[in-house]
Amino acid sequence: MSTVELTAATFDQTVTDNDFVLIDFWASWCGPCRQFAPVYEKVSEKHDDIVFASVDTEAEQQLAAAFDIRSIPTLAVIRDKTVIYAQPGALPEAALEDLIRQAREVDMDEVRREAEQAENQA
Fold first, then answer.
1. Which structural domain, as residue segments, surrounds residue 91?
2. Are 21 and 1 in contact (CB under 8 A)?
3. In the prediction, which pLDDT does 112 show?
């Protein structure tokens, strides 16, 4: 699956309709972003069950702010409408594949239990 452009207008629907979404926050002037883009695209073709999205932080400043993006590229992983990973930095292909493998192994029931416990303690 090739990458899809994500906007503030399409964000909620994309996250609601898909269990597993990766988001690449980037900008056209960012050298590391341009280097990471072909890696991201290549890996996207190997995972038909994952939505690989990209957010142009210049065009979608509100969305970038909602994710508190301070450095680009930043990669975010959302599973079951929950952000389970968000870190800046371009990843080599092997590291991106490993991140996807780890994200697949996350027990989302446990994540929800921990979030509920934290909410109840607040």
1. 4-121
2. no
3. 85
Q: What is the pTM of this model?
A: 0.91
Query: What CATH number does the domain containing 101 carry?
Result: 3.40.30.10
Active site residue 33: yes
> How many separate domains does the chain show?
1
Catalytic residue among 30, 55, 64, 96: 30
Mean pLDDT of the 72-95 span:
95
> Which residues are CB-contacts of 1 (< 8 A; sequence separation ≥ 6)?
44, 45, 47, 48, 50, 51, 52
State residue 34 phi and psi, 5-degree precision: -65, -30
Contact 74, 86 (CB under 8 A): yes
* Whether the Cβ atoms of residue 37 and residue 8 lie closer than 8 Å to each other: no
pLDDT confidence of residue 35: 95
**Whether residue 117 has pLDDT greater than 70:** yes
Judged by DSSP in three states, 5 sits in: strand
Residue among 22, 33, 77, 100 flagged as catalytic: 33
**Cα 43 vs. chain centroid, distance in angstroms?**
13
pLDDT per residue over 32-47, tens digit each?
999 999 999 999 999 9
